[in-house]
Fold this sequence. Notes:
Layout: H1 7-20, E1 41-50, E2 53-62, E3 68-77, E4 82-89, E5 96-97, E6 108-109, E7 115-125, E8 131-143
Antiparallel strand pairs: 1-2, 2-3, 3-6, 4-5, 4-7, 7-8
Amino acid sequence: MRTTIKAGLLAAAVTVALVGGSAPAWAGTPGVDPSGCGTGSTPKYTDFTIGGVTMREEIRYATGCGRVGWGRLSRIAGTAGLIVTQSAWNPNGASQYGVPGTNWTYTVNANPGTEVCAGFHASSVDGLGHQTYLGWFFAGCWRAP
């Protein structure tokens, strides 16, 4: 296989890398685990009470991996068993689902003017392990500044 690199593109990439002093963080990169993106902030959150459990879905934002957003889901109160599947997305874009072993999703684009949306599906689990689907819980969208 032969690879051809156009000189202008290579020069632009080298310039970006040299100006920043290190490898650039590509703005709005989807599908990144946000745990390495800096502390981030929560510009929007929504609380849901589901079968005696209060869950908070946050829309998070950080610039450490470029301008990215993601969802983070936390139990605020209650002890009933829930199974949740959360996602974050840009309108008309692909969903990013939960990072295994965490309570957050992979990142989506949060460049200026872009909306970041989040929500989750929930099911209850009884003492015998039977699941009952409870619905979709939409936390809304936030527009990046």
